[in-house]
Amino acid sequence: MNLNYVSYFVEVAECKSISKAAEKLFLTPSALTISMKALEDEVGAKLLDRTHKGVTLTKHGEILYQDAKGLKEMALKWKNISLNKEARMEKIYLTTVPSISLSLLPKIVCDVTNRMPEIELHCKEAILTDINDLLFEKEIHYAICSYDCINRKQLEILAKNSGYCFEPIYDDHYKVFFRNTHPFSKLDFVSRENLNNYIGVTSSTKALYFSEVKQYYSSSSIYMENVMHHLYDIMHNDRYTVLPSIIEHSICMHDSIVAKPLKEPLNISFALLHPITEELSDAEKRFIKIVYESFDI
Question: Does the global pTM surpass 0.85?
Answer without folding.
Answer: no
